[in-house]
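Appendix C: a fully annotated inverse folding record. The material below is reproduced so that readers can follow the format used throughout the book. The structure is listed first as C-alpha cells, followed by the designed sequence.
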C-alpha cells in the first residue's frame, strides 16, 4: 500500500512534514522510508517549497478504517484560513489537506506531469479531503530515479541551531547547501513561523542521519520535539525536461537589473553570476540554457556560454586601428594611409564565468540540480 499527504499548512504556519511524522508515529503497521517530494514550483496553491509526502505501508486495506478515524480527528481540522504573504503578491489559499491510499504504487507519469506543470485532480485510489490530493498522488508516484536525503527536526519553542554544530555539518562529506559559501549564512533553518527547526540535506541516508544527530545534540541548539530522515527528489532537476541552445538576438535590461534575452529568457537580478553573464552577452552569442516556462517566459536556472566572437577592424603596422573606406572598398589606416582587404579580425571573448553558471545557492529552487 502507498500513502500520500499534502497541503496541511499555510504561510501562517504548520508543516506537512510534521503532520506526516505524527501520523507515522501513530499508524499501527510497519512502513518503508518516508518520502518528501517537491513538485512544480509555480503551482498556484503552493506555500513555501511545494512538497508532498508519501510512504509505502506494509499492510492491506484493513488500514482504511484507522485512516478514516485519523483523518477525521487529526488532519481534517487543519483546514486553514487564508494568510497574507509578505514576500509575494500572488493570491494566497487556505490549507486544503488531501490524503490518498493506493494498493500499488501509481503510474510514475502522474509524478512527471505534476513536477513539470499544472495538473488537475485524478480520481484514483482511496482519497480523503481536498486539493492536497493532487500532490499526495504525485508523491506516491515518484519513481525515485535521482534521490537525495533530508534530515528534518521540529522545534518545541524558539528556533536556534548551534553555530558550531552547523560548521561541523557543513564540513561533513556528503552534506550540501548547509551554508552560503559567499556569506557563511546558514541555509538549513527556515525563517517563517513553521515548526521546523532545521532541514539538513545530504547525498546519503547515513550522512543525513549523522548530520541530524550532530545538529540536534549541539550545545547551542534549542529543544526539538522529534526528527526524521526523508528520501527526497531535491537537487534532482526533475522539473526540467532538457537544456536548449539559442543564439542571442535581443537583450533588454529591465528596471532593477533583470535581463530578458530573446524576448523570453528571464534572468533575475538576484541570480548573481548568472545574471552577470546574461548582462555580458552580445548579440550573436550562442548559449545553452536550462529554465522553467511560466506565463510565456522561461525563468532561467542555468546558462552556459557556447561561443562569443567579437569582430573588430585590424590594427595597422603602425598600431592604429584601421577603418572602412566604404562598402566593398576595403580598409585604410587613418594615420599612415596603408590599405588592406582584410576587413575584420575575429577574437574569442572570455566570459566572466566558465561552464554552467547558476544562481547563488540561496536563490535556487529545491529541485535545482547542481552542476
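Designed amino acids, in order:
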Amino acid at each position: 500500500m502507498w500513502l500520500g499527504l499534502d497541503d496541511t499548512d499555510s504561510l501562517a504556519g504548520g508543516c506537512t512534514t510534521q503532520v506526516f511524522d505524527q501520523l507515522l508515529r501513530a499508524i499501527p503497521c510497519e512502513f518503508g522510508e518516508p518520502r518528501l517530494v517537491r513538485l512544480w514550483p509555480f503551482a498556484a496553491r503552493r506555500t513555501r517549497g511545494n512538497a508532498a509526502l508519501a510512504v509505502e505501508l506494509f499492510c492491506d486495506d484493513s488500514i482504511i478504517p484507522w485512516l478514516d478515524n485519523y483523518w477525521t480527528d487529526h488532519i481534517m481540522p487543519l483546514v486553514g484560513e487564508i494568510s497574507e504573504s509578505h514576500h509575494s503578491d500572488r493570491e494566497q489559499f487556505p490549507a486544503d489537506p488531501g490524503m490518498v491510499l493506493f494498493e500499488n504504487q501509481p503510474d510514475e507519469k502522474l509524478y512527471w506531469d505534476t513536477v513539470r506543470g499544472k495538473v488537475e485532480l485524478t480520481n484514483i485510489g482511496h482519497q480523503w479531503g481536498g486539493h492536497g490530493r493532487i500532490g499526495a498522488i504525485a508523491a506516491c508516484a515518484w519513481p525515485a530515479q535521482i534521490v537525495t536525503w533530508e534530515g528534518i527536526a521540529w522545534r518545541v519553542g524558539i528556533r536556534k541551531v548551534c553555530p558550531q554544530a552547523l560548521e561541523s555539518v557543513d564540513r561533513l562529506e556528503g552534506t550540501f547547501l548547509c551554508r552560503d559559501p559567499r556569506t557563511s549564512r546558514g541555509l538549513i533553518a527556515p525563517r517563517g513561523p513553521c515548526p521546523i527547526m532545521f532541514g539538513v540535506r545530504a547525498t546519503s541516508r547515513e550522512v543525513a542521519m549523522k548530520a541530524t544527530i550532530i545538529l540536534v545534540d549541539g550545545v547551542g541548539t534549542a529543544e526539538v520535539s522529534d526528527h526524521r530522515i526523508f528520501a527526497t527528489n531535491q537537487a534532482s532537476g526533475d522539473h526540467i525536461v532538457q537544456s536548449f541552445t539559442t543564439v542571442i538576438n535581443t537583450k533588454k535590461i529591465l528596471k532593477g537589473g533583470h535581463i530578458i534575452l530573446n524576448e523570453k529568457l528571464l534572468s533575475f537580478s538576484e541570480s548573481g553570476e548568472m545574471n552577470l553573464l546574461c548582462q555580458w552577452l552580445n548579440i550573436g552569442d550562442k548559449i545553452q540554457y536550462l529554465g522553467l516556462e511560466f506565463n510565456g517566459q522561461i525563468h532561467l536556472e542555468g546558462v552556459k556560454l557556447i561561443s562569443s566572437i567579437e569582430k573588430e577592424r585590424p590594427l595597422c603596422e603602425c598600431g592604429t586601428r584601421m577603418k572602412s573606406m566604404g562598402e566593398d572598398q576595403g580598409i585604410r589606416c587613418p594615420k599612415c594611409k596603408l590599405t588592406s582587404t582584410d576587413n575584420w579580425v575575429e577574437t574569442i571573448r572570455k566570459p566572466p564565468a566558465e561552464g554552467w553558471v547558476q544562481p547563488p545557492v540561496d536563490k535556487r529552487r529545491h529541485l535545482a540540480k547542481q552542476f
